[in-house]
Amino acid sequence: MARFNSAGRARIDCRLDARSKFKQSGHKGQMGERFSEKVVLIAGGTGGLGRGVSLAFLEEGAKVVVTYRDQKEFDALERAAGGNSSSLAGHVVDVTNEAAVNQLVERVLAKYGQLDAVVNAVGAYAGGMTLWETEPKVFEQMLALNLRSGYLISRSVVPVMLKQKRGAIINVASKAAVDHAAGAAAYAASKAAAVAMMDSLAADLKGTGVRVNSILPSIIDTEANRKAMPGADFAKWPKAQEIARVILFLCSDESKLVHGAAVPVYGDT
Question: Model pTM?
């Protein structure tokens, strides 16, 4: 079944339980500071996966800028960040709007003068219906949130990173991009297209110092997903914190040889 919020937008399908399992210490350094002096933009940084990624980058010393649509979610992220909250900034942005994305990137550069990594964790799920039962509005929402968002973000940040001669872009796709199950044609198509788009972008950027990779999660263990599927075995679902660690690796100097990959992050599920 398609899921929409009160504004008619598909819900971001990766909501993290507000009672985050991240244990905040109130200071940086527990996991090292690989990203000290780095600036990271996380689109959808208060959602299920995005929140976990935001907290992980903050723990490793990064200046983190997130986009969000729900003020309560940003407030919860800020509280969870504890002593790291001074390194967190948030902006209400519709990342399917070109002008809004460009303005956001301009604001980030005006404040920090650099942009070292970008993670697009914006996404939506609509399923439980055949292709011929899928309304055009639902199909268009899948393309907008799962494909257009990554296109607009990349189009805005790549020129910045090319000038810097460095940077990392991570786009969150889905296992559905390669495992096309029944009942989710629009979702699978949008995620598969997103992977293809990032693959092409990676080829465009060979030799520039800017790296592009996708990750492919399955159902993430979030409060929203538990409520939607109460009979599932939650223990088999990947945790946002686990996926966040992979994303941090892909954005770090340790993964300088990884470029143009679509990395599965669903274990043996």
Answer: 0.86
